[in-house]
Amino acid sequence: MEYFIQQLINGITLGGMYALIALGYTMVYGVIQLINFAHGEFFAAGGYVGAIALGYFSGLGYMETHPIICLTASFAMSMAYCAYLAVGVEKIAYKPLRKESRLAALLSALGMSIFLSNGLMLTQGVYDAVYPSELFQGRFDFGMVTISYLQIMIVSLTACLLVGLNLLVFKTKVGMAMRATAQDKTMSALVAIGSNRIISLTFAIGAGLACAAGIMYGLYYGSVRYDMGFVPGIKAFAAAVLGGIGNITGAMLGGLIIGMVEIFGAGYISSEYKDVFAFIILIAVLYFKPTGIMGENIDDTRV
Amino acid sequence: MIQEFKKVWKPYAIGMLWLLGLLWPLLGVHPDGTMTFQTTFIVWRYILAGSFVCLIIYLIKVSGSLKFIADPISRAVGNIKTTSTALPTWVWITAVLIFALIYPQFTGRYGTDVAINVLLYICLGLGLNVVVGLAGMLDLGYIAFYGVGAYTYAILNTTYGLGFWVCLPLSALTACIAGCIVGYPTLRMRGDYLAIVTLGFGEIIRIILNNWMELTNGPNGILGIKSIGIFLPVFENGFTFEHFWMKKLQLFYYFALGLAIVAAICVQRLNFSRVGRAWESIREDETAAELMGVNTFIYKLLAYAMGAIFAGLAGAFFAARMRFVSPESFTFLESAMVLCMVVLGGMGSIPGIILGVAALIALPEIFREFESYRMLIFGATMVIMMLFRPAGLIPAKRVGTRSEEKEG
Asked: Is there a smaller number of Cβ atoms within 10 Å at the N or the C end of chain A?
């Protein structure tokens, strides 16, 4: 039983990260019906920039004196950086191809993904970038079950970001413009919503969330690698599909489920094959219920 | 030209400043709490200079100031084109074949080795071309079938001692079965969903190869695979056949050449058959094809299995030549590389794929010192090709003409 609860806690932590990445996929898909293959790279880039920022602060020595401020600043700066990166990528690789065939856009996205991960490798080296480990050392013990401060931090920050995103999308004017663009670009243009700006904004928000997930991943596992965006990227995509692509609440739920399945699969079935479970869920969902659990009306072009 | 420059300088300048902003945090901030600007500016200046030259050339071309050079060139190209179409295709094919046949006589070990790689990737590229170019399904897990073929030969050879020639069709068969197993659930999907699911399956197969210790020896790979055995006639005492292990690189080269030629002929024949037309109709409009009585599911599965067969053949050859297989050789990046070759050369066009493979295998060999930039350039090539020339270097010729297109 203790083992089960422990796995549940680990699963929520991991699932939160997947949910954050999955949101980027689902939002971009909702607005321009494109699977942003480079999204995993925003996650990896976020992990790296977070490592750079935290390393810089700890090099200056602020880390010991003001850890919370340093962490907040690192998160904010890295998220801004990834948003900036995503807008650049969108302008170069996706915007000119919006009218072209879907295959062209997909190949361009794939090329961008390879380009970005190798760009990271060339600028940062092939070795793991290490996160400062002295942060959040403590933990609570409940008998056999332990919850580290880091896990609490990750889960609460994830929850804050998810709630914030929900408020942004469903309560503000910008969110309304985003939803309108997702529904009908021509009509929203007629009511003076600049679709280009909204699309850029969507990319920026998605990349910012992926970046936050990247930093959490780095803090949680201790290091980041240039090619780490690939597998979590696919798993997060599986999460987005599971929740019904284009559906924000679905992506959050899907991320949690994928994280749980991975952790429980690794714990109870086999840890070598933990990456396989997410893929199997992806295939099963697409085969049996392509609309996902939360449902999203699909048309001929999607599945 | 000045006018064109006025139009583009603003986005160009913004883009370069944007790039500077992206580069600096990665290059200029160090974990010891220092910031530098030197390296960032050096790298950025190189990129700036390079892209500026490209921009100027592009602008000159657009504005037509290059007419005095471009006109003779285009005339010459036109002349070449007319002569090339005037010459029957078999002349070209014979010329290429003769070159391929005598090529190893002129180069050393290294050149032959590179050429074998090129031929192997031509075989892979042609197989992927059936799936992506002819049937229009983006397959990102293609290299898994290559892996299945290679492992089939490796396992059958090391544990049961079966020879290469027995295993070659068996490798093709297992790859084909793997293709059908993967294809059966996935082919109901379309477009980007299919791409990501094939990617998932490719990863699953790689993970299985990596973890099934009893069968595949896990990440250590399988060592001691036998080379290709051949029987050669010997006339010393009477007329007998003697068994040799293929050791000489040139023999491997000719075998790979044969494999590539067979693949090219098969793909060409498939393309111009009833099956090829069915694939093309699926690629252009799946719903319409189904309406016209094409059994889309069977044809898509067939395309998938066909692609897998070529990959399996290439895989068996790869295992026999390297005499060692490990899961490291069958990663997603390999899939992406093969896809990049197909895209660069032109989806659906056989000469295009040959050119694409030659460009992406041979050029990195020439520019050895830029080895680490290789994948970066691959990625950039894919984006740039999609932006400027989505049909590839040698676009595929349409088999028939459409009603809305002009005849002839």
From this structure: N
